[in-house]
Amino acid sequence: MSIRVAVTCGKPAGASRYARAVEAVGLEPVIVAPPEQRSLADLGVVGLLLGGGTDIDPALYDEEQAPETEPPDRPRDRMEHRLLREALQTDMPVLGICRGLQFLNVFHGGTLVQHHCRQSTHRVRSGDRSLPAHDAIIHPGTRLAAILGDGRCPVNSRHHQAVGRIPYLLQVSAKAPDGIVEGLERKDRRFVVAVQWHPEDQIDRDARQRQLFAGFKDILKR
């Protein structure tokens, strides 16, 4: 019997890399994009993956839009808010990637830095998206460390926004050497883990990054 996972995106074409990554560890992706109105229960999934994409509407964290911030995708914001709320209420495992980490923070009442000043070290500059851009320092004792190990881990990256204020329900699980948050998780749920980088692009290059999806699957099987 297949293990089905909802994979969110702005447009279905944008979910292909995430779908491939979950398929690589034996999960079945269910692509979810606006204007999808079905619940996670109706979709028949047992896990939620919040994928990367465009910037989150700053109105969701009570800020005016900065000049560098992309136009908001409000239908996606509303859809992901509804799905994440359902997942947390039912204790369904959640994996967030890039925008997914930022959305997790905003959902819980946190804020974002709309345009951080460390662009040169947080964006892969070549055409190969799997190449590391910097290290993430994974904190011991976290769920992320239980999957990837603690200490330094080379990660790819392409984001101009970053986590700002962190709400009390979330715990930092990794940071870049310059202090930018690279991992968040919520300890009072079965599995809520999010990373700022793009492990879906690294699964063929780095077995540790593939293990992030395998660890997600292990939780879903329980």
CATH class wording: Alpha Beta
Helix amount = 25-40%
CATH architecture: 3-Layer(aba) Sandwich
Task: Say how many strands there are.
Answer: 11
DSSP helical segment count: 6
Low-confidence stretches: none
The domain count comes to 1
The largest sheet has its strands arranged as 2-1-3-4-11-10-9-6-7
N-to-C series of helices and strands: EHEHEHEHEEHEEEEEH
Taken as a percent bin, the fraction of beta residues is 15-25%
> What is CATH's topology name?
Rossmann fold
How would you sum up this structure in a few lines?
The protein is of the alpha/beta class and 222 residues long.
What are the salient characteristics of this protein?
nine-stranded mixed beta sheet; 6 helices; two-stranded antiparallel sheet; Rossmann fold; alpha/beta; 222 residues; globular
What does this structure look like?
With 222 residues, this protein is α/β, with parallel strands linked by helices. The protein has one domain (4-220): Class I glutamine amidotransferase (GATase) domain (Rossmann fold). The chain contains 6 helices and 11 strands. The strands form 2 sheets. A 9-stranded mixed β-sheet has the order 2-1-3-4-11-10-9-6-7, with helices on both faces. The chain has a two-stranded antiparallel sheet with strand order 5-8. Helix 3 links the parallel strand 3 (47-50) and strand 4. The longest helix has 16 residues, at 74-89. The protein is globular, with a radius of gyration of 16 Å. The mean pLDDT is 93.
